Amino acid sequence: MSQVPVIDSAPLFTSDSFSSPESLATTSQIHSAFSTWGICILTGTNSIPPSLTNSLRTALNKFFSLSPQKKEELHLRNGGWAWRGYMPWGGEGTKGSVDQKEGFYGGPELDSKDEHPLKDMPAHGKNQFPDEDVPEMRKVVLEYIEKVTELGLTISDAMSVGLGLEKGDVRRRVLEPKPIQLFRAFKYSGREGVESCGIGEHSDFGFLTILSQNTTGLQVFSPSAEWVDVPMIPDSFVVNVGDILDRLTSGLYISPLHRVLPPSPMSGRLSIPFFFDPAWTAKIQPFPLSTAASSPISDPATLKRWQQRSTFNSLQGVWGQYLGVKVQKVFPDLKLPEFSASSELPDCRSQESAWFDDGYGAALKTGVS
Asked: At residue 231, what are phi and psi to the nearest 5 degrees?
């Protein structure tokens, strides 16, 4: 059975220009992994200290151990479409089946009093932290968001080089002035009589997903069309391509199907996916790749993948429009605020499945799938 690529990313943190033989070898490995599997495991990610990830896990386990009443006080619905807070067990589903997990949603802190250009926009706002019961959680989550964002930018620079672009070109095209940063944490546990997956098979909606996991359970659909376990390697990060990156690279990078196996009642799986997405104002246009790199767009397999897995029929507008449409599907009773180019929303195909790996954001039992 084939195995998910494991790549030592340490050279990316020791060469500013990525010009050393070691750095170029690493960028080539990432490019190859994204072009074949759509996923890889990165070790040697020096930007995120293991002590920080361990502290984060400790705080999250404390949070998930709180009483249901305590956690419900921070329910996602209380935060509106800032999309922050607690998601109860079974609050999300994939293709009609309950996902066996509970979760916590967060992001960079944006107080309602802050004068920020994206104030009141979907996925921006104030977090709901359990400050009284787990006071350390706020600090460690916000620090982790900062550090994992740095990792996302480094991976994006490596992609630029691998795609034959100038280092930093991907960053300039879709990640400036600041990428969208969506923090998630999911605690998996099975329930008697429920046989569904922890999360059913799906592809991710966005750009990159950077996942920290503490045990096995995640599987990816391999290039040889078989489900393969994603191993848990201490202090590593699982990184996979999302639907929009698949489209931006004209199908060269693959957004893979993946799932989490049904958990046991005593499952200790705690996954921490971070959704690293284009900037709100990023123009969604295919990257200017060479003719050879762009050729997969006419490949029947690529077109079939886009038809089956992608939420996008066409590329136009800015990323905030796509994300705004998604958030509105989660919160159908909320009126979408006016923002640039909102009068011509992009063509996003409706999906049965949830929108996220180990969890982008699903229907929250609102009747929207």
From this structure: -65, 155
pLDDT score recorded for residue 355: 32
Quote the distance between the C-alpha of residue 93 and its chain's center: 17
Please name the amino acid found at residue 185. A
Q: What is the pLDDT of residue 22?
A: 95
The contacts of residue 185 (CB under 8 Å, 6+ apart) are 60, 103, 104, 106, 270, 271, 272
Per the CB < 8 A criterion, the answer to whether 290 and 329 are in contact is no
Q: Other C-beta atoms within 10 Å of 328: how many?
A: 17
d(CA 88, CA 12): 38
CA distance 31 to 159: 6
Name every residue whose Cβ is closer than 8 Å to that of residue 181 and which is 6 or more positions away in sequence: 107, 108, 145, 149, 274, 275, 276, 277
- Give the pLDDT confidence of 152-176 residue by residue, as tens digits: 999 999 999 999 999 999 999 999 9
Is the pLDDT at 133 greater than 70, yes or no? yes
The answer to whether 136 and 59 have CB atoms below 8 angstroms apart is yes
Rounded distance between C-alpha atoms, residue 244 and residue 217, angstroms: 25
**What whole-number distance in Å separates Cα of residue 124 and Cα of residue 108?**
8
Q: What is the DSSP string of 279-292?
A: ETT-B-------HH
Which ranges of 185-288 would DSSP assign to H, the alpha helix?
A: 243-248
